[in-house]
User: What shape does this take?
Amino acid sequence: DNSLYGPRDPGIHILDRGTVNAALYNSSSAWLLEFYSSWCGHCINYAPTWRNLAADVQDWHPAVKIGVLNCADEDNIAICKDYGVQFYPTFRFFSAFTKEFSQGENYKDSDRRVQTVRHGIIDYLQAAPKEHQPSAYPSLDPLRLSDISFFIGRKESHYTAIIFESENSYIGREVIMDLMQYENILVHRALSSDKAVLETLGIVSVPSCYLIYPNGTHGLINIVKPLRSIFSSHLKSMPSVRKKAGAHSDLPARLEDKEEVAWKEYDKSKMYAADLESGLHYLLRVELATHQTLEGEKLKTFKDFIAILHKLFPGRMHVMKLLETLQEWLVSMPLDKIPYDAILDIVNNKMRISGIFLTNHIQWVGCQGSRPQLRGYPCSLWKLFHSLTVQGATQPETLANTAYESDPQAVLKIMRRYIREFFGCRECAQHFEEMAKASVDTVKTADEAVLWLWKKHNMVNNRLAGAPSEDPKSPKVQWPSPDLCPPCHEEVGGVHSWNEREVLAFLQQHYGSKDLSLQYADPNTDQYDVEDKKSDILPTKSPGSDNDSDKGKHHDHLKPEFLDKLIQNLPNKSKNSNNNFEGSKSSVTFLGLGFSNIDMSLCVVLYITSSLFLMVMYFFFRVRSRRWKIKPNRPYV
Ligand SMILES: Cc1cc2nc3c(=O)[nH]c(=O)nc-3n(C[C@H](O)[C@H](O)[C@H](O)COP(=O)(O)OP(=O)(O)OC[C@H]3O[C@@H](n4cnc5c(N)ncnc54)[C@H](O)[C@@H]3O)c2cc1C
Assistant: This one.
């Protein structure tokens, strides 16, 4: 379990695909839900604040509940997709008594400190229309002058507290919410604008709390610091004021730190295919799968990303074949909008093409964390892009005859776009974009691209050293450390300095495909043929390899007949292709219910065939019926 939250975190409701819809639908309370990803550094760093918030407002739970949902859990992918969550953390409000599915309302404030979010909750509750107000929602509106005089001196069976405060203060509303589950007391708020009332009651400063005892006596509470927590705890401690039966405070001890995961021994100087393949599996089946469709810049970025992966990914044969199939399919698709399910069909090899396979589970080795929520995916993404920059520098001929030929920034540009469009950790993406904007244009050679990424990664390491997302077993150090690459480190005038020539050589060796270790890599070879098992690492591609004759063989074997047919049937060459496909596009959205493009294309073909058939039948019967009409009038001769 890689969840950042435990069942015993006070006030936190852990939701998942089995519980989220039932919890939100027609709920008697509102919800504030954090959709997070357990690998996202910002989510890890923010988790203590979210826990504090949940504990802080747990007495408010009849009116608002605080929830969490881990979108990095593969079981929750579909649900995060339904809620349209692509970036983490995402905070959404859901109102009470919703009768139909809703994606909620974003919590927009970039200030996410406990107090600010608490104020945001109050604003949200107050703005809710009457039919969506929680059932146990106390009035947060200020008392009118007549109400105040009604309460003063009145005998009741309970205490009445009135918080006097200025108009923009939240304290009164917070204290009302804090005591909503307590019996023998009612809390109200009043504004300090009526000076005469303040004077009568002897109130000289606000906020102040005026208390009317059950016997009718009344007076100002003497409190040293006029803070929300002090008002609340004072009122909760009045004689006979207690929590209502059935209102559980639910304040157990914090969960012990999650147990350590079983550790796999590995060599830090090596790269593991298992990390790259697990990362690719997560990227294609989890990170991107939160998208219903890809279109516009996202689709362009995805196509370019797959194109460069297909050329430079240092993977095993069966993964490379998958990338090749995917790339060819994307190139032949004239659509400007592709449902992601169609891409998943290819990734999952629904067509059962021989020799294609990508592991469908995660096996971190060099990216394993000492706890399940540490390291993993972002580590593999760094490794992936470092590998691509190194492949681009050591085998520049691979990119011959492509749009990226002799572009030293090719990989960095695509990485930048990928991170911007798809990387779930939004704040990471913003930081990376700032770094790229500032200096990526200075990169003039492919070797400089390798070093640029290395330097930027070290800047990130420097920034994150000591953060909660740091794994104590893999501290964020300036990399490669002296034990990995002694000649990379030098001293100039007693100050540390990098020998960049040595660093480059080290990166080329470390991220080069030659030394990729297959230890712990998924041994599942059932799905690819015997010939492929013999040569596990794909040999380096030759220049312009797409046109190579020896590759032709492999190509034929790769491209299934029906894929060819599908491609031929699409109106890609027609001038009116966009118009022709208009209907199909809308059907795609409609069929986002699970139909792939392949299904779609078959439908289009069937549709055209049956229309033609109907037209032929129509003309046939028209001609026949004319003849029938004419016949009786013909004079017999
Ligand atoms: C583009 C990007 C931006 C990110 N921005 C943020 C952010 O702003 N805030 C945040 O909390 N998290 C951010 N992350 C996540 C963070 O950088 C780590 O990936 C995550 O915390 C996991 O750390 P790790 O210990 O596995 O090491 P990682 O930093 O993920 O490194 C993975 C591996 O790469 C190698 N390596 C380390 N340094 C270098 C280097 N300089 N050059 C080449 N190889 C190296 C090492 O083998 C290391 O184990 C970002 C991730 C990415 C991909």
Summary: The pocket of flavin-adenine dinucleotide is lined by residues 41-42, 367, 375, 378-379, 381-383, 386, 419, 427-428, 431-432, 454, 457-458, 460-461, 464, 469, 471, 474, 479 (CB under 6 Å). The chain has four domains: 12-132, 145-243, 271-517, 580-624.
